[in-house]
Amino acid sequence: MRAVEIIEKKRDKHELTQAEIEYFVQNYATGNIPDYQAAAWAMAVLLNGMTPQETTDLTLAIVASGETINLSQVVPVAVDKHSTGGVGDKTTLVVEPLVSACGLPVGKMSGRGLGFSGGTLDKMESIPGFRVNLTTEEFLHQLDTVGLVLAGQTADLAPADGKLYALRDVTGTVQSIPLIASSVMSKKIAGGAHAIVLDVKVGLGAFMQILADAHTLAQLMVDIAHLAGRKAVALISDMNQPLGHAVGNALEVKEAIETLQGGGPADFKAHCMEVAAHMLTLGGLSANKADALKLAGEALADGRAWKRFRELVIAQHGDVAYVDSPELLPKAKFIEVVSAPRGGYLAGIHARVVGETAVILGAGRAKKGDPIDHAVGIEIHRKVGDYLENGSPLFTLHADDEAILKEARLCLLNAHTWSDTPVEPLPLFYGVIE
Ligand code: URA
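^ inputs. structure came back:
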């Protein structure tokens, strides 16, 4: 078998066999196939697609490129969630302690932000001391003793995905449904979750911009999970405007803490409750969604979810004083409230522009390995459909550089669009694939 023949076959729109996919992935992971051939192959896949069978074979080949974790050693059922990436998406910070507090252990491997979309590890590292690099033994021990882990993916888990994802990021091949599905599902399968809730984002601030594509991606991921013997549900959720108000690492941690303590923005809280309810049902703790919502509502209201978050921070060596008093978290030098330049109904808050502005401020990284500033970010004060008076607070900028603050102000004012007539609020969800 030769790599070039596999590339040509995909270029010419033919279906690859399981053996060809395994050969390509294995040899790419071990360095026998160079990046330039993998880049050509990824572009051929992006342009010509893959059948569900090819995508499943690709997923399992990526899983086989590294070690797999057997969570059954420590817990009977482990649930996990995965978001395909968005702006202001701090759902994991609330949902994981909430579900764990209800009695379902959660061991999650998360990622870092890349481009306009944020990452859970960066957010948690706003808390001084918080360790995200755990060994497999530490991960399993904490899942057993605390019932909650939030760590980075170990280098040994689906290593072909790490390599391929970095390559896709710089070759314009991220936005491919089979490549996204295999990337996400290989990590979930290798990570050992028995039940997985997939949060597939759709809209201006998501990889999938069209609802039909989001549906296809969601269905494909659920099918792959089933073929791998896992339970899965996919929610299709809105990412046209940021989720909640805060965008930026420490700001998002603060908003998650507020939500865990019973406050927080209404849209974010409702989103978290829905995701948690699906996790509880899929994990077998609740008979149906109504029961699950009740269970999650109680764990939030009586402080158990917040208590579990504190336990997580302590277990991973974070300084709990910072979450007990979130005003201690990193703070930007310049904080400016920007007012609405006109009155009217908010017609749009372009999520991708908001995410890109957060990167300009320093909250995200333009390329892998760039340093980030945990303090900076944006607070969006209003949501699509809201009516505002001219001059009322529209957003707050948190910046460490005055020139960048000016640039960010302009970008964000342009990200807001207006209407003189009433505008429907955006839905939180567009569908569920069971
Ligand atoms: N998230 C992933 O893990 N992989 C992708 O390809 C896209 C989003």
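The chain is about 45% helix and 15% strand. The chain has a mean pLDDT of 95.
thumbs up if we can close this ticket
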